[in-house]
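Long-time lurker. I teach an intro course on protein structure, and each term I like to show students one example going from raw sequence to a predicted 3D structure in token notation. This year I'd like something fresh instead of my usual example. Would anyone be willing to generate the tokens for the chain below so I can use it in lecture? Attribution to the forum is fine with me.
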Amino acid sequence: MWTPRQKGFAIGRMYYVSPKANNSECFYLRLLLTAVKGATSFEALRTVNNQLKPTFKKACIALGLLTDDNEWHQCLGEAGLMATGHQLRVLFVTILIDCSPTHPRQLWNNHKHSLCDDLRHTL
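-- Reply from a regular --
Happy to contribute to a lecture. Here you go:
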């Protein structure tokens, strides 16, 4: 719950929050709290260029606080030239779990053919 400070100025403590899936919005909220100056509400934190974003993550993306997924697209593209489908799927899962890509669905859509190229034979 957002409550205004009652008296004076104080520096509080912000605890670490992991960017993993179950805490992701808390992570993005914490990121916004460190970047947005003078916010007076949660809505103010999610507002970028006078446009209210639906989630804290989308606000972070709009502010440029998160990197793009080009690194992961390049990684999967290069690995797709020499790795098997199974190896690519293991790599994809590792990227999802450990690297927190910004747009995981887009990553899947761009590389699903090479990720699944051996499934027809396997099935």
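Some talking points for your students: The chain has a mean pLDDT of 84. The chain has seven helices and two strands.
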